[in-house]
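Much of what follows relies on a compact textual record of a protein's fold. With that in mind, consider the following protein and its fold in token form.
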Amino acid sequence: MLILTCPYCGVAADETELHPGGEAHLTREGPESGEEAFHDYLFLRQNPKGVHFERWRHSHGCGKWFHAARCTVSLEVFGTYPAQVSEPPEDILSTIDARRPGWRDTA
């Protein structure tokens, strides 16, 4: 079972208390973008085997959105962090580098 710690309220919640929101750190396309860019934003997602950054909502808790870094193969969680950032924090990236050397080469 997947257990993630909410970075806002500190509760370690299992996946039944959370709601997945898909890939994290997407560039939102606005009305001025072309059809192709908007199509890509809506439908094209990474689906890696390995390290992945995702959005989650603590739906049965504080209700806030946050990001999680985890391995899609082993369900190992590298860390969680607030959703108001545009890229993963350095401490999360360092943790992944230590546990999965070379992971950036396959991303």
The chain has a mean pLDDT of 92.
